[in-house]
């Protein structure tokens, strides 16, 4: 059974899911939800995602939660798990990197992007310059730590690409758009960002999520 991913083609969460599927060459059909029509609150969709979140994929049995995105693994489990190290030491470094992305990086960059980009575009509200600078300063401090980590290794969890790296992509593209040049001025971060942002899997979904045919 081919995976089906539900969501919006330009959403950060949908791209976070799709880049993983493209990276592992897992075929899927993409079904766009009409948010204005509240498709994500319809009874059929709520059977798949009871909380009415935006990005859900479904096939049969096994589900893995990628924050607001549900990815069904089933027969693709081993392929996705290749992006999560099995070795105990490597796995602990991966868990650490994934935790930092989730709890430290994502709140700062999403907060900055909201203030600089989405607040006016989606809600018609004025920019709060103080809040924007707060988020950018926190982000810059965190990327200083990233730069130290990446001075000793190729990726965030070691020398192998993992989900922790891929999960930075969908919001990372908003860093320069939010007014920060940290992806250019921190040398090890710049090298890492250049490598992951040029992955064919990311290029395939960067501007819009689309189905991946078998």
From TrEMBL:
The keyword Transferase applies. SUPFAM superfamilies: GST C-terminal domain-like, Thioredoxin-like. It comes from the Eukaryota. GO terms for cellular component: cytoplasm. Residues 87-214 form the GST C-terminal domain. GO terms for molecular function: glutathione binding; glutathione transferase activity. This is glutathione transferase. It comes from Coprinopsis marcescibilis (Agaric fungus).
């Amino acid at each position: 059974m081919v995976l089906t991913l539900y969501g919006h083609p330009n959403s950060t969460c949908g791209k976070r899911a799709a880049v993983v599927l493209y990276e592992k060459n897992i075929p899927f059909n993409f079904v766009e939800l009409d948010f204005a029509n509240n498709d994500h609150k319809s009874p059929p969709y709520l059977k798949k995602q009871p909380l009415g979140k935006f990005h859900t994929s479904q096939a049969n049995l096994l589900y893995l939660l990628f924050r607001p995105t549900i990815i069904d693994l089933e027969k693709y489990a081993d392929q996705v798990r290749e992006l999560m190290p099995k070795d105990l030491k490597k796995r602990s470094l991966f868990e650490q990197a994934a935790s930092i992305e989730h709890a430290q990086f994502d709140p700062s960059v999403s907060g900055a992007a909201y203030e600089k980009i989405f607040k006016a575009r989606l809600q018609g509200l004025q920019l709060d310059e103080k809040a924007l600078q707060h988020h950018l300063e926190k982000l810059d401090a965190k990327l200083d730590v990233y730069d130290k980590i990446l001075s000793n290794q190729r990726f965030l969890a070691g020398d192998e690409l993992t989900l922790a790296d891929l999960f930075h992509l969908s919001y990372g593209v908003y860093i320069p758009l939010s007014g920060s040049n940290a992806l250019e001025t921190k040398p090890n971060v710049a090298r890492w960002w250049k490598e992951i942002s040029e992955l064919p899997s990311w290029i395939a979904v960067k501007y819009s999520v689309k189905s991946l045919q078998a």
